[in-house]
Design a protein that fits this description.
InterPro entries: Ribosomal_bL20, RIBOSOMAL_L20_CS, Ribosomal_protein_bL20_C. The chain has 5 helices and no strands. It is mostly helical. The chain is rod-shaped and about 95 Å long.
Length: 117
């Protein structure tokens, strides 16, 4: 019987996985089974961290807004500001409010004074 040479499909799949794990250390970038396990773990972590990143940024924006408002000593707290924003139907999200708080505090003070009226 003559020797049968296998096709390239499995090799192509493995090299594609190896390219994904080329920056990993040790056996995690050399052994095929370990590479596939690490790829699954890396993708799961990436998915979880996308949600965590959204939470972290929201916490950062809230902290920045609260710090600026409390330093003013005219306004009370973050939660009351947000409550009055919703009551007056001003459509400013936390990201925009945080940018205003950092770049132009006077504008945030004007917004808070308008809400108080």
């Amino acid at each position: 019987m003559t020797r049968i040479k296998r096709g390239y499909i499995a090799r192509r799949r493995r090299t594609k996985i190896r390219l994904f794990a080329s920056s990993f250390r040790g056996a995690r970038s050399r052994l095929t089974r370990t590479i596939t396990q690490q790829k699954i773990r890396a993708l799961v972590s990436a998915h979880q961290d996308r949600g965590r990143q959204k939470r972290d940024f929201r916490r950062l924006w809230i902290t920045r807004i609260n710090a600026v408002i409390r330093s003013n000593k005219v306004y009370y707290s973050y939660c009351t500001l947000i409550h009055h924003l919703y009551k007056r139907q001003l459509l400013l999200n936390r990201k925009i409010l945080a940018q205003i708080a950092i770049l132009n505090r006077n504008c945030l003070y004007m917004i808070s004074n308008e809400i108080l009226k």
